[in-house]
Design a protein that fits this description.
Layout (H helix, E strand, L loop, with lengths): L2 E6 L13 H19 L3 H6 L2 E12 L8 E8 L7 E9 L2 E14 L5 E2 L1 H4 L28 E4 L16 H6 L7 E10 L8 E9 L2 E7 L5 E11 L1
Antiparallel strand pairs: 1-3, 2-5, 2-8, 3-4, 4-5, 5-6, 7-9, 8-11, 9-10, 10-11
């Protein structure tokens, strides 16, 4: 069952190159999925009232070109076949000229109090899946013979947090881009694995290495646990 939302890229969602930031596009994609829940139910608020919530596990995004100012976008989002503890979702991004991007995500539903995952079959919360070949899960491999650059500290602030007082998952991309030279570039590929949530006012250690065309990242919480692992590919605008 597909759901469609429409957006116009405004000035607040552009980076200093004048193109749509990957954080803003991720926001559009996730809000489109939220809209499907809001209109068809159950809403995310209703799930919370029942003591459950969705947590993002993996997110992958690819773009064939940079998205420009005031472009009209259409985002089609839908679930694909899901089983076990993994809820799979895809989003296709279209401009007026045709498709410019694709995103896939894997979610887990958890019991908020116990933090235990809930099986798809037991959730009572899934839309009829589309027959769509989901891309295989991305692998982020850190070469054993290479070292990270010197770590950069980042304190999780008010403007980055969600209702749970954890860093919103769409905010990570821009934080990681801060470690790169972004002049004249856009993110054409982005893969991220969310491992342990970053809490409000925690200080993260941001680690980066360059491997071929890919920038690889690992972030650590102040307790030493891995927060996320990610990879990016930059392309010329």
């Amino acid at each position: 069952m597909k759901w469609t939302e429409r957006y116009v890229t405004d000035s607040h969602d552009l980076d200093f190159n004048g193109v749509l930031s990957v954080t803003a596009l991720s926001h559009y994609i996730q809000e489109s999925a939220n809209a499907q829940h809001r209109h068809l139910g159950p809403t995310l608020e209703e799930l919370r009232e029942k003591g459950t919530a969705f947590l993002l596990s993996r997110f992958s995004l690819s773009l064939s070109r940079a998205v420009l100012p005031y472009e009209k976008l259409r985002i089609e989002t839908f679930t694909t076949e899901s089983r076990g503890y993994s809820f799979n979702r895809v989003a296709l991004v279209f401009s007026e000229e045709g498709q410019v991007g694709e995103a896939s995500s894997v979610w887990a539903m958890v019991d908020i109090e116990s933090r235990r995952p809930i099986r798809v079959a037991d959730s009572g919360c899934f839309f009829p899946p589309e027959d769509y070949q989901t891309p295989p899960p991305s692998r982020i491999i850190f070469p054993a013979d290479m070292e990270f650059d010197a770590p950069i500290s980042h304190r999780v602030g008010y403007g980055e947090c969600d209702l749970n007082m954890h860093m919103n998952n769409t905010r990570y991309a821009n934080m990681l881009c801060d470690l790169l030279s972004m002049e004249g570039k856009y993110v054409s590929e982005f893969h991220i694995h969310y491992l342990n949530e970053a809490k409000y006012k925690d200080t993260l250690s941001l680690l980066h290495m360059k491997v071929g065309e890919k920038d690889l990242f690992r972030t650590l919480r102040s307790d030493g646990k891995v927060n996320v692992e990610a990879s990016m590919v930059l392309s010329n605008i």
